[in-house]
Amino acid sequence: MTVRAATPVRVTAASIGVAGAALLAGCTSAGADAAGSSGSAAPYTDGTYTAEGSYATPESVEVVTVTVTLEDDVITAVEVVGDPTNAESERYQSEFIGGIAAEVVGKDIDDVSVTRVAGSSLTSGGFTQALDQIKADAAA
């Protein structure tokens, strides 16, 4: 009688087919709830966060202060405060501030991407920089 050692087998979705993949998809790990999620918290901690972002204009470097309230990773409130150094920056920051809530409130923070709000494009750079810092601060 000849005894053969077991050969390791690599299992991939392609090797088990659609039916096998569907069966494996139904498997849950220890600690998972009935819906199959791990029960882990959202990637970001709920709360209100504030950060500054800056951006360059042809005349100066401008700063905006962004405050965001997060609930289950969704932005529920946003406030942007500018400190413009000239009349043109003041106009564009004002337009941005007037339109940003409509662009981001109710969206998952990871889905927010603004490039131009109410005619203001440069202010978006400062907003995005501040939002990146808020994500870092809120990371669970």
Structure description:
The N terminus is likely disordered. Helices cover 34% and strands 21% of the residues. It is built from three helices and three strands; from the N terminus they run αβββαα. It is an alpha+beta fold and 140 residues long. The chain has a three-stranded antiparallel sheet. The longest helix is centred in the C-terminal third of the chain and has 18 residues.
Entry keywords:
alpha+beta, 3-stranded antiparallel β-sheet, Sufe protein. Chain: A, 140 residues, elongated
What is the 3D shape? elongated
CATH first level of the domain at 47-138 = Alpha Beta
What percent of residues are in strands?
Answer: 15-25%
Radius of gyration: 24 Å
Total DSSP E strands: 3
Could you give a short account of the major beta sheet?
Answer: 3 strands, antiparallel
Query: What's the SSE pattern?
Result: HEEEHH
Helix content: 25-40%
**Strand order, largest beta sheet:** 1-2-3
Q: Determine the N-to-C terminus distance.
A: 59 Å
Mean pLDDT across all residues, rounded?
A: 78
Structural class by helix and strand composition? alpha+beta
Q: Spans with pLDDT under 50 lasting ≥5 residues?
A: 1-39
What's the total helix number? 3
Overall CATH architecture of the domain at 47-138: Alpha-Beta Complex
- What's the CATH topology name of the domain at 47-138? Sufe protein. Chain: A
